[in-house]
Amino acid sequence: MIELSLKRLGDWTFERIGGLCRLRGAHELAFAASAAGSGSGLGGVDIMGVPHAAAPRGATTQFMRLGFRSRGLFRAEPEAHFALGIAGAWRKADPSTQAPGAASGRGLVIGNVSGAPNGCAHAPVVQVESFRGISNALLQGTCSPRLEDDTWYLLTLTATIDARIAYRLDDASGDPLAEIDLLDESDDVPAGLGGWWILHALSDRNLDRDWWFDIANLEIGWR
Q1: b/e for 154-184, b at 16 or more Cβ within 10 A?
Q2: DSSP assignment of 61-90
Q3: 197 close to 48: Cβ distance less than 8 angstroms
Q4: pTM for this structure?
Q5: Is residue 178 a contact partner of residue 169, using CB atoms and an 8 Å limit?
Q6: C-alpha distances out from residue 166 to 80, 169, 179, Å
Q7: Which partner for 222 in 59, 71, 102, 138 could form a disulfide, CB atoms 3.0-4.6 Å apart?
């Protein structure tokens, strides 16, 4: 299928050192965002992406491709997870006004969601999530095998305008570990959106533990 657009965004690292989260790019610049007390979900940088965008005319599918590796995150914050979303929109929580963050779209989580409704019983994993206006929903039967720290994985996430969500997870050699494709039957996800995000959640419970989460060859596109 022809790709109508493709943005190559390179390599990134989410990191927490000495309790402060940063987002660091291959250009060696570091970014830090709003911070608040432990357990608030605002303990530093927690999201990157495009908050608002429209789907290009004629496009049917948005995709995100990347490699990822946890360097200590899974051990340091066993209750934490990353959320990746496409075909949507988001806003960050504002600690000055207490306005909550929000995300609408379709995507997946990487990490531990075993305590959430329909969350995979084992962790850490990749699992599909529908980001809805009223409440998000993890989708059953979409769990990957258990992930390991200090291990590279290759991931492709896609979402279509007719509400399908799919992902493929490979090991570093390109051998498949999981492949999921299903229809999201929710009517509470707006159509025609093209925003995307990568964020970490519940990762400020143990601020004394340092960790890094690497993203390689990030690509966002439409076809």
Answers
A1: bbebbbbeebebbbbbbeeeeeeebebeeeb
A2: EEEEEEEEEEEBHHHH-TT-EEEEEEEEEE
A3: yes
A4: 0.93
A5: yes
A6: 22, 10, 8
A7: 59
DSSP string, 187-213: S-S-SSB-EEEEEEES--S-TTS-EEE
Q: Which two tokens stand for residue 87?
A: 């075909």
Sheet holding 153-160, edge to edge: 30-31, 20-25, 5-17, 211-222, 61-71, 153-160, 164-171, 176-183
The string of pLDDT tens digits covering residues 157-216 is 999 999 999 999 999 999 999 999 999 999 999 999 999 999 998 888 888 999 999 999
Question: What is the mean predicted confidence (pLDDT) over 44-71?
Answer: 93
The Cα 59–Cα 222 span in angstroms is: 6
State the residue for tokens 């995979």. Answer: 120
